[in-house]
Amino acid sequence: DTLKAPKDTVALAAYQNALAGYDPAKVNAVVLMTDGFNDTNHGPDLATTVAMLRSMVDPQRPLPLFTIGIGPAADMDALRQLAAATGGRAFRVSTATDIVNVFLDVLALRACAAGCG
């Protein structure tokens, strides 16, 4: 949320930007780190955001959204819904070590998306 925009707006903007720059020769993914709460009343609600993300998914150009909830108060239900809409996954982290491990997991998941032996 470093853009200081509502989570749902950031998720949509990041996803649209990644789609626009999609490169089939590279590993494409969006990673969103957040507390998982939309603290403002701007932008679409969660259900609308999930529907919009689903409508942007193109099986020919896989682009999963991986959400990372920071801290015990993260709204993991919302983050799971956002990630699932694109074939991604949600993670919760509490420490710097957790963040490193999640990034390694995300890289492994993306590297194997086309099929690991």
Global structural class:
alpha/beta
Give the integer mean of the pLDDT values: 83
Put simply, the count of helices is: 4
Tell me the total number of β-strands.
3
Distance linking N and C termini:
36 Å
Largest beta-sheet characterization? 3 strands, parallel
Secondary-structure element series: HEHEHEH
Q: Please give the share of residues in helix.
A: 40-55%
Describe this structure in words.
- The structure is a single chain.
- It contains 4 helices and 3 strands, in the order αβαβαβα.
- It is of the alpha/beta class.
- Helix 1 (7-20) packs parallel to helix 2.
- The chain starts with 6 loop residues before the first helix and ends in a 6-residue tail after the last helix.
- The model is unreliable at 1-5 (pLDDT under 50).
Provide the fold topology.
Layout: H1 7-20, E1 30-34, H2 46-56, E2 65-70, H3 76-84, E3 90-93, H4 96-111
Parallel strand pairs: 1-2, 2-3
Notable traits:
117 residues; 4 helices; globular; disordered N terminus; alpha/beta
